[in-house]
Please model this.
Amino acid sequence: MKTLAVLHASQLVTLAGPARPRTGVELSELSIIPDGAMLVRDGVIVVKGVSDVIKREMPGDAEVVDATGRVILPGFVDAHTHPVFAGNRVDEFELRAKGATYEEIAASGGGIRSTVRRTGAASEDELLAQAMKHARWFLEGGTTTVEAKSGYGLTVEDELKILRVIRRLNAETSLEFVPTFLGAHAIPDEFRNAPGQYVALVIHKMLPSVVEEQLAESCDIFCERGYFDIADSEKILRAAQESGLRLRMHVDQLTNSGGAFLAARLRAATADHLEQANAAEIAALAEAGVQPVLLPGSVYALGKSRYPRAREMIEAGLAVVIATDFNPGSSPTPSMQMVMSLAATQMKMTPAECVSAATINAAYSLNRGDKIGSLEAGKLGNFTLFHCADYREIAYWFGAPQTHSVYIRGERAYCA
Ligand code: NIG
Ligand code: FE
Model:
């Protein structure tokens, strides 16, 4: 049995606490151990505490990691990403710099559908090669678990191709990827005049194949004007729920179409984006116990100014999550550190709230709160050492990578 002894962290940020998503003041309670240490055996945390005490329990042959002068956090859990696609959208980035909006670019044939065309033309191996580069970026930022959506296929074959790439990412990297089926990401070009037929294809052809091959844990949808309306979203999501999938939803991003009410009615696991959500919707999410996943990287990268109202959500008792929304269009960042910086400066979340939202709450949103998201006995040894002594520095030094090294299941997966 192999034991890893991690000693003398300036702050071991454990997030030990109640075994449920954190709300209200709990978001600020990080259970930090100064001069902290932990023992990890066979990939699982066995004990944590003050270094002097833990050293006494340490077996003589333990492999020691000296964390002097460094903060340790649970590995980030990035609960909303779109990591498998071909190419990039750097041309649209330039057009936006010249004044075009995301909505205008999408209306003229760009946007999601331009990535769909390139992704459809790419082979599974080509997509995997590019996604491996994205996986490396996540790891370098201190992320150890990544929720991963399909959605750039939009045909039965291509959606399955993307989900198989996500499965291969799981096998070929040390990160854990949690797959989500997002066949309803946009209406493909060939169904522009018959969107109902595409909805039927998603329900009757894509969903059964995804479930049959066990390629996804959840189903997502882009509930938005010009994409999927409330009625069609409800049809698709109910079918997914009946097939045993959990629900995550893109709602109220560009316009308010009442998507958050639908998320509440369906008891979705998460309602994501919510830039345009109002007070009544926030109350409905709280009532239904839906977790909001806030994606400030997409607001920033689209050059918009309306960030989701995190303070009101925290006041209302919502178990807030923050994530990157990594994708080639609206949020080309894999960095949870950047997202924490944006959450702090633009959404007025404190650094402690940012940490809870990026770890333990994100873990619960993925149904993994019992395994990851905090550093407690019985959980996986997934953690990151940072080049700083105070956890607040991680979000503060924006643009300066702070990752020193990353461990997954007690094994070193990355070292800067
Ligand atoms: O979460 N809103 C829908 N999906 C992505 C954008 C995808 C794209 O532009 O390629 C998002 O922002
Ligand atoms: Fe997204």
In short: DSSP finds 16 helices and 16 strands in the chain. The radius of gyration is 21 Å. The pocket of N-(iminomethyl)-L-glutamic acid (ligand 1) is lined by residues 82, 111-112, 115, 222, 250, 253, 298, 325, 327-331 (CB under 6 Å).
